[in-house]
Amino acid sequence: MLPEIGQFxxxxxxxxxxxxxxxxxxxxxxxxQGAIRSARILTILQFVAVAFSFAILAYxxxxxxxxxxxxxxxxxxxxxxxxxxxxxxxxxxxxxxxxVFLLSGWSIAVALMSKRLPIESVARVLAVLGLLSFxxxxxxxxxxxxxxxxxPYFPIDGRDLNPLLQDFGLVIHPPMLYMGYVGFSVAFxxxxxxxxxxxxxxAWAKWSRPWTMAAWVFLTVGIALGSWWAxxxxxxxxxxxxxxxxxxxxxxxxxxxxxxxxxxxxxxxxVFKSWTVLLALSAFSLSLLGTFLVRSGVLVSVxxxxxxxxxxxxxxxxxxLVIGGSLLLYAIQASKVKSRGRYELASRESMLLINxxxxxxxxxxxLLGTLLPLVHKEIGLGSISIGEPFFNRMFTILIVPFAxxxxxxxxxxxxxxxxxxxxxxxxxxxILSVLSTVxxxxxxxxxxxxxxxxxxxxxxxxxxxxxxxxxxxxxxRHAFSKGLMKLGNSHxxxxxxxxxxxxxxxxxxxxxxxxxxxxxxxxxGDHITFEHYDFHFDQVDALNGPNYTxxxxxFTVKQDQKQIAVMKAEKRLYTVQRMPMTEAAIDAGITRDLxxxxxxxxxxxxxxxxxYYKPFIRWIWLGPLIMxxxxxxxxxxxxxxxxxxxxxxxxxxxxxEGTQNA
Amino acid sequence: xxxxxRVLTLLVPFIIFIIGAVLLATPLLKGSxxxxxxxxxxxxxxxAFTLQDIYDENKQYDATIFKGQKMLLNVWATWxxxxxAEHTYLNKLAKQGLYIVGxxxxxxxKKAIRWLNDLNDPYxxxxxxxxxxxxxxxxxxxxxxxxxxxxxxxxxxxxxxDLNEKVWNDKLLSIYEDME
Lengths: 662, 180
Fold this sequence. Notes:
The complex is a heterodimer of chains A (662) and B (180). Chain A has 662 residues and is α+β, with helices and mostly antiparallel strands. Among the domains of chain A are: 1-166, Up-down Bundle (Four Helix Bundle (Hemerythrin (Met), subunit A)); 516-616. Helices cover 65% and strands 11% of the residues of chain A. In chain A, the strands form 2 sheets. A 5-stranded antiparallel sheet of chain A has the order 2-3-4-5-6, with no helix packed on it. In chain A, a hairpin with a 4-residue loop joins strand 7 and strand 8. The relative contact order of chain A is 0.08. In chain B, strands 2-1-5-4-3-6-7 form a 7-stranded mixed sheet. By secondary structure, chain B is an alpha/beta fold. In chain B, helix 2 (81-95) links the parallel strand 3 (71-76) and strand 4 (100-105). Chains A and B meet through helix 10, helix 11 and helix 12 of A and helix 1, helix 2 and helix 3 of B.
């Protein structure tokens, strides 16, 4: 009975989202106040309906209701409750339900937190979000219903969740990632609403900014979590594979990163407006494309656990409608937008333009690398395969100008910068970053490679530039300590975002250049020594988990005769799916990780063991966290919070620009 | 007033998108199963090649190794996580007595050997296709892929994606058993 109620509320939510799309637009068109006001109420009702539906599915997982086909294929009564709960989004149907649920979550957030926006604008934004929800509801209900029953012959127990996904990382990674994907729908809806209205102004950029930033923060953390999960769960110590599904999440991130920078220019200087709109449309379009690629099975990947061509066609149709429609609208409406601001070649505007160009170049590299194998074949050039080496080479090339300009960019003034004034700061930054690079490599690098020197230098170039810029800005009018306190949240956000990237660059450089990977044969009692570390293989124990059995190898690690860790590397066999899994033992540290993964047992009783030394790998995930923290600071900036004074200001600027655009 | 040239410029993203959408839609509309990328080579012999053995640079193989008995040709690489997931099943098939030729594709020799030592080597012969030459001729789309080849060296089937119990029993087994 309960699943039928869940199904019913899902259909109800679908109907409500249809009304949410139609009614407010009708109201805006005819000036019918009631219809305009209905947008908020319909959004809230839609949220309640889908939340109820989602809760029922989650509850059915918890009580092991195997009469539901989706649960029977993706859960098992022996799984602990938290994995049963996260199994809700462990496969196609449930993850799409999560998708629409989060979309309605963002919608309700817009409905409740946009009290100071003109009510017509909110109505348009919610209507666009309604359209998106409606499309996804139809998709879930028609092609991927999670409530389908297996009656009358239902299994006694479920087939278990893919063991790769039975992990804490999976409990939080997809929701975070989806929050990011779906969150760009808000920026998209704002852009469409502004296009419909024919009013693209600074106020629009200002409203979009915190929402875009929120989505970007979620996506950043989501991607970092995915990378971290791959690192410890796949057992190979890799942190990024350029897998199509990873790329699918990376592309909206690149577009989103370009968007948050471009929005800043549009808000502060009133230029790049039609470009910013295009980015806002792209970021969400790429999220949709990612969903299409993952769910249609067009690309074969480790993530594509379930794929079905009808689903692919449905998403593609929806994609064409939404993206094609919005780009057409863009072509017609954006031509009316006039740029107000003027700026010279040497200016912060130009620097941000370069940032955008490089980010889009990176985006195109990823897009082509992901799609070319498909397209190439279609246009009759035969199949090609693009792997890791292609992406690595391209990104190594792109990061150099990106990091160099990033360091300098924030020193530039808006509108016009005298290049002569930059000579002194630039030489100072150059000297300090070279010195730090030398010192850093002297301490941490066992030997030198060109790429290691380059990468470390780029990282320190950014760090020194950021610190120097903070120093300049805070001593501009005050004493240093007082000026530091006066720096706005937005400024700190920018600095942290850039520092985060520097941390990532250094992490990647160190990990890629100085990792040591040893594949050794060890019997109990053996030991192996490298890099001042001594690994002693103590014993092998049997392992008995709730839904798996296995063995655990126990190692004592000593550094210079002192014991620093006892590491337990597991090898599990998941009993239902008969799938073996490696659970690596990791001793994490700020300057290095030690990583042990158990291989197969060899005929003579010894074990194949992989022992990795990964310097600075934590920095790869620390960086995104710093970036995300910066993003959160920016959202907390006073300008986006205090209601009254800003509301007045908004209407004034909006009026002014409205007349200018007319 | 609409500026015509401006509209045309702004139409560019739309046009690019439509082209992209058409390209993406064709494989879906044409072959109902996207994972069944048809190889032009089904029904034909494996193209001529000379490749080194993965363990031994001095040992060379050519297309004659595909004649004499029916077998599987498995394309894999260490940079491919799906191959890792698939490997256990290949070991199982090898234990059942199937003749499997492995082709290591666009990879690093040292890493590949380590992989085989670590995870067991299910292959009777391991080819090392560093530049993807044979892969190109076979129309390999990515790793992993598996070809069914009969005793005359004729390719009978191509599977894109990982081999597992289900795929093997549902799709490949019957073809394999029917092959000469």
